[in-house]
Amino acid sequence: MLLTGQIHGAAKPINVAQVRQLSPLRYPGGKTWLVPEIRSWLITAKRKPTLFIEPFAGGAMAGLTVAAEDLADHVLLCELDDDVAALWETIFQGNAADVRWLCNSITSFDVTLENVRQVLDSAPKAVKGQAFRTIVKNRMQRGGIMAAGAGLVKEGEAGRGLHSRWYPQTLATRIDALHSFKDRVAFQHADAFDVIREHADDSGACFFIDPPYTAGGKKAGSRLYTHNEVDHAGLFALMASVHGTVMLTYDDSPEVRKLAKQHKFRIVEIPMKNTHHVIIRELLILKP
């Protein structure tokens, strides 16, 4: 097992504008604000992880940062959602022509309500086509919400409507950059629990666990994510059994604290700003 690294335990929320943005997805519950803590945790560990695993990848800011900064030998991303998986499959498993097609599709896309609806209503057969639809859906739907029923952006930033979150050249540049280190990143379109069990005996692995927030009566996960039903008690028990190091991140609730205590995890409170710019405390739950 890796010896525990250090957490800053910042006294005030991280300014996310100072964190390098790597993901092309704007993800509800994304962990951009947590990147400095994850970096500190890994850099100060006694041994570099042989494998960094993000089983609930979503926007994958943790895993992408680890790969970009060479904080682990290899990174494994896992995602169950078909649309999100198609994007990561194209970037990390597709060839250069697939990625070039995706980037060109983004930079040449004419953002009109008619065109957006046409893409969202389409049913692409190719994975790269599904990846493009995912980018459009993520950027055009309110709050980056991918679940069914999410409405399109209306006013957006500075009243720019659908254009407010569409930065085509920036998105293409990010995707191209991620593809450049595909040799360090593996992706599995799979259930998180299965992937964790597969690597449970790897003492050199580092697990970053950021599940949909449905524990302790939280409702957000059920409306933000297509796959939102998680056995949190089972997840805690599973993470207590793995041989590698573990960081889980959860909203603060009595149920979560009880599970952490039951399985002898450490708890660190980290301040963050929610979508309403109110400072709240997030729990980092650590093993060892």
UniProtKB/TrEMBL annotation:
EC class: transferase
This protein's UniProt keywords: Methyltransferase, S-adenosyl-L-methionine, Transferase
Entry EC no(s): 2.1.1.72
InterPro entries (UniProt xref): MeTrfase_D12, SAM-dependent_MTases_sf
The keyword S-adenosyl-L-methionine appears for this protein: yes
GO MF annotation list: S-adenosyl-L-methionine binding; sequence-specific DNA binding; site-specific DNA-methyltransferase (adenine-specific) activity
Entry's Gene Ontology BP terms: DNA restriction-modification system; methylation; mismatch repair
Keyword Magnesium tagged: no
Protein name (database record): DNA adenine methylase
